[in-house]
User: Which sequence fits this backbone?
């Protein structure tokens, strides 16, 4: 275990990988973490997933990126120190940190346990600011992180730690809408896209008792889809697919971030069916007729709150679910970014932070 180095004024010097500008490759950098306050825990990071949003933000493709940036919001680690008033965690506990590390705690959304929809804005794990509005947040491409105890998650025994990391974003992003919008046993579920999000949606849908069909542009993913638990596979680059399967599905979960025709996929829904978007493509034209003719619904979903994310983790442990991953050293993260852009990963990269500790 890496020794904690105290720098000054209750801060910890922490090795990390950062993008200094939008066009820069990620490279070694040093950040300062706060010493745990009364309600904080200090976590020694073991693994961190690589999310496609890491690329978007590190390259400022969505605008508003804060540099230098240390990405990473799928964090698995071990508690090494706790504040004097912490009751939930003890040193040695294996825990997780997801996409946010704080929220206002007072608004209606926060009181409902839906912190991801905090009316004043959740505090992002990276590429954001602490509640003071001026201290940048840094993510999991680092050796340690300090987080308020209420924004930390328990990682159940039985879930491989490296495979648990993507559950904290890809997992909850797909689990939440399936639960919230009421996927039922026997429902006909279509999952659009078989990537980091889609492969988790297939596993969840199968475990919830749905009849799962993957809809993909890539015929070569058929075997993978069936191994992951899908019952069927449709190739969407064939226009006949949409005609032959009109009205087939009760529920469609659309995980694709590339621009595509929502209207065509809405045509696959039965009467009163719902299609939920979790991908973020460029604006796409939408026809009212695609919705009103059979009283269909088009909805969206973000991630989940702390309570629901813990529920998801426990569901994974109970059902033997974990992400399919390729573990890499931190030194290979730039290559991993390029491979992700080519869809050359099955289905999520995860960084082993022992590689950064060894190099520090």
Assistant:
């Amino acid at each position: 275990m890496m020794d904690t180095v105290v720098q000054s004024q209750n801060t910890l010097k922490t090795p990390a990988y950062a993008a200094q500008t939008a066009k820069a490759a990620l490279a070694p950098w040093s950040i300062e973490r706060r010493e745990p306050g009364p309600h904080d825990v200090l976590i020694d990071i073991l693994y961190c997933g690589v999310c496609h949003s890491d690329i978007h933000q590190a390259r400022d493709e969505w605008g508003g990126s804060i540099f230098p940036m240390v990405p990473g919001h799928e964090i698995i680690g071990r508690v090494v120190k706790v504040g004097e008033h912490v009751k939930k965690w003890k040193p040695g506990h294996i825990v997780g940190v997801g996409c946010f590390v704080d929220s206002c705690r007072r608004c209606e959304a926060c009181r409902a346990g839906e912190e991801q929809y905090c009316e004043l804005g959740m505090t992002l794990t990276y590429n954001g600011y602490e509640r003071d509005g001026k201290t940048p947040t840094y993510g999991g491409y680092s050796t340690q992180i300090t987080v308020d105890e209420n924004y930390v998650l328990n990682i159940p025994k039985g879930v491989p730690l490296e495979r648990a990391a993507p559950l904290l974003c890809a997992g909850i992003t797909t689990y939440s809408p399936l639960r919230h919008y009421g996927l039922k046993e026997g429902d006909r579920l279509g999952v659009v896209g078989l990537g980091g999000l889609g492969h988790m949606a297939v596993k969840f849908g199968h475990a919830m008792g749905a009849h799962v069909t993957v809809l993909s542009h890539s015929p070569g993913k058929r075997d993978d889809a069936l191994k992951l638990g899908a019952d069927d596979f449709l190739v969407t680059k064939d226009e006949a697919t949409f005609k032959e399967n009109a009205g087939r599905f009760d529920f469609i979960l659309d995980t694709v971030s590339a621009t595509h025709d929502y209207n065509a996929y809405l045509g696959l829904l039965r009467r009163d069916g719902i299609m939920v978007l979790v991908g973020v493509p460029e604006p796409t034209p939408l026809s009212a007729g695609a919705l009103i003719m059979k009283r269909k619904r088009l909805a969206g979903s973000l991630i989940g709150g702390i309570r629901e994310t813990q529920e998801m983790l426990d569901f994974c442990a109970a059902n033997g679910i974990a992400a399919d991953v390729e573990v890499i050293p931190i030194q290979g993260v730039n290559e991993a970014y390029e491979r992700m852009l080519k869809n050359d990963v099955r289905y999520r990269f995860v960084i082993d932070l022992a590689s950064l500790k060894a190099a520090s």
